[in-house]
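Homework help thread (please don't just give me the answer)

Our assignment gives two proteins as sequence + structure token strings and asks us to describe the second one. The first is just a warm-up. Here they are:
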Amino acid sequence: MQLVNALCCGVLILFSHHATHNAPCFVDDVFAVLREGVGNDGELTNASLTLFGICTVSDNSAGSVLLKLSNETSRNQRNGLEVLHPTGVLVAEEDNRETLRLTFDLPPSPLLKQSPVLLLAFESPFKGGDLDVTFTSQSLQPNTQSACISGETQYILLTGKASEGTVHQQWRISVETNSPVMKKSLKDLLIGEKTGSTISITLLLLFSGGTGTDTRQTHVSGSSLASSQTFSFLCELKRFLGEVLPQHHPESPPFQLESLPSMPPLSLGLSSSETLLAGLINSSFLTVFSFARWGSISQVHPGQLAMSPALVEEVRQRLGQIGMQIMEVIREKEVGHRATERLERLQEFSALPTMEQAAGRSQYCAFLLLKALQTVAREYELQRGLRATRADTNNPVRGSVCSVRSLTVNLERRLVGPSAANIKNCHGSCAFPLTNANDHVVLLHFHIESGNMDERAPCCVPVAYEPLEVVGLNEHGTYLSMIPDMVAKECGCR
């Protein structure tokens, strides 16, 4: 059977040991990678071939399988793909210690009567140079297949054979490389320094031509469909923010925001007041998005809002305006065409009908997208402001005065974005005339100037702050937390 014919039946996806089946968006991210595997000409790009560890392209190769799967995913997105989750993954050395053995169990399912395609996904890039790997198994078709791994490879694509779907199965795949010096690199890639123990690799079986379901759950109700659509929107938003937000690399270690006291979180849903929602879209406070606590699609609450027609219209107009602004930023900063495509998909998810509509998911998506685009716009405005501030501080007179300066700190890695925050700080001299000083500081200054050197001199410190907004998601819904006194807003001598 040709590999191209195997494509129409199914895909088996094997994830690395740090990606669990409850990790946010990991399935949806794979669909996005497959969807984006083809270029504007409808053909696979060289980057896609490298990404999937494909050595050569021919009519009967894994490249042809990837091309068909990319086209299928691009047309249908998640629709028509069914998902199974194998279990019991084990990676160990063979008795001769020259070969690694990968085994996993497949639950009984009629879907297994179709021919799968196996995709092995790695969490981190391979750092050992170029690696040619051979996979051998009676469950593969053909039994022996090859992959070419480099530092840009994230997935390995193989093809399997159809089997009896009514009984429990176990796949055993031998993995080896012909280069003796690279055998340790292969072992490190798959199991690191530990051998013979179960590792938490996640297996997925994706089958095209279905109804778009995950067999751990049943998508039958309207609320389940809304949950699925909300999930896809949030995953696309996560990817978009990861691509378009400026990448900061401060030297400080990441800080856990949860360790800071915050005000009680406010739920964003049908019961949210008009005053709260209007205040949020008019807020200029620093905002970060945290999807750290959400799990699988079955756990994502179908977000809904009930805004008045006037507020819906305001959100629609603001989305149109800021959408054009962000498109210009993407072109100016050369972020990449993927960001443009993601924004267009997000706008489709968030489309608000011109006629008066009932409360629901589209309002929720439009509201979150507006907050996200406001965050992106604010980040780029901060960059421009920092450049202007640095130019101004080159003036020795202006640079020595107590004033607000930039201070970027690392935030926890689980945040969707931004991954760093400019909390600002105060620097400069508190020599006379004092900046933003009160009477106590004026008297203290003259007291010291009179020769009383034992007292502490006035210092340049923050005297006013702004909060940090955290938009978070968990299995119960979407929440807004306010962390007070987070960003220095004004400086003075104290």
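The one we have to describe:
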Amino acid sequence: MAKWQSFIKNNMLTIMTVVGVLSGTAVGCILRSLSDQKWTPRETMYLMFPGEIFLRMLKSLIIPLLMASIISAVGGLDLSLSKRIALRSILYYATTTVCAVILGIILVITIKPGVGAEAAEKGGTSKEEEALKRKVLTQDTLLDLIR
């Protein structure tokens, strides 16, 4: 019994993660089976909101955590080695950033995202349909404020 308690205590995060994934899958399957018609985009947005907030919180933790670990690792080294590593890190970061920017520009020029989307949207919609699409509810404003 003590082994099980020790195991559960040491692996609680993993266990809770698996339980969360399984319960989320079960709730999703139950909600999908209860509705016999297709969900509206607004209902889908309401269900996606908690996951979107969770992912934004994770993204906001990544950069500070990375910077803290790099600073801690470099600070633990001797001074002569730290200068070389710091210089290499800065050079590596600058190089990868420049490569990412160049790749992004090339892809935007090649793919041309958004071209033709306006013509497709304007082609088959009436003024009434456009008014319904632009309808913003209080709930939408509140969710945007929380985001």
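TA reply:
I won't write it for you, but here's a hint about the kind of observation we're looking for: The first helix runs from residue 2 to 10.
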